[in-house]
């Protein structure tokens, strides 16, 4: 109880100013807003674009994997895809590792 009376005496007997407490939060709110627009929002857009690419994947698409392997999709399962990378060479990998679909201008 003695601590409470000392704390009250240190404030001069007046109620603490709540507007100063709110003003001290403004820099943190601004930092969060900047982080949201510079980091979080672009990452969410990239994830949405990648998810749409994987959902629209079909047999015969020419793709590039995240490790840089070029191939043609020959078979699709729920979680895996089979790519033909050479005449007699097929590899099986997770669908998540397909990073892009090749355009016709890429050889």
Features:
107 residues; alpha+beta; SH3 type barrels; 5-stranded antiparallel β-sheet
Walk me through this protein's architecture:
This protein has 107 residues and is an alpha+beta fold. It has two domains: 16-55; 59-107, SH3 type barrels (Roll), CATH 2.30.30. The chain is built from two helices and five strands; from the N terminus they run H-H-E-E-E-E-E. The protein has helices at residues 2-10, 18-55; strands spanning 62-65, 70-76, 80-86, 89-94, 98-101.
- DSSP summary, beta strand count: 5
What is the name of the CATH class of the largest domain? Mainly Beta
Low-confidence stretches: none
Please tell me what the overall shape is: rod-shaped
Largest sheet: 5 strands, antiparallel
Strand content: 25-35%
The helix tally amounts to 2
* Radius of gyration from the alpha-carbon trace, in angstroms: 28 Å
Please give the share of residues in helix.
Answer: 40-55%
How do the helices and strands follow one another from N- to C-terminus? Answer: HHEEEEE
- How many domain units? 2
Q: Can you summarize this structure?
A:
The protein has 107 residues and is an alpha+beta fold. It has helices spanning 2-10, 18-55, and strands at residues 62-65, 70-76, 80-86, 89-94, 98-101.
Topology, please?
Layout: H1 2-10, H2 18-55, E1 62-65, E2 70-76, E3 80-86, E4 89-94, E5 98-101
Antiparallel strand pairs: 1-2, 1-5, 2-3, 3-4
């Amino acid at each position: 109880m003695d601590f409470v009376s000392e704390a009250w005496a240190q404030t001069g007997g007046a109620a603490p100013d709540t507007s100063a407490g709110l003003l001290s939060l403004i820099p943190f709110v601004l930092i969060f807003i900047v982080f949201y627009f510079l980091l979080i929002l672009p990452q969410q857009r990239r994830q949405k674009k990648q998810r749409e690419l994987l959902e629209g994947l079909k047999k015969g698409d020419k793709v590039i994997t995240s490790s840089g392997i070029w191939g043609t999709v020959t078979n699709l399962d729920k979680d895996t895809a089979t790519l033909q990378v050479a005449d007699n060479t097929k590899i099986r990998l997770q669908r998540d590792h397909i990073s892009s679909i090749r355009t016709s201008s890429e050889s």
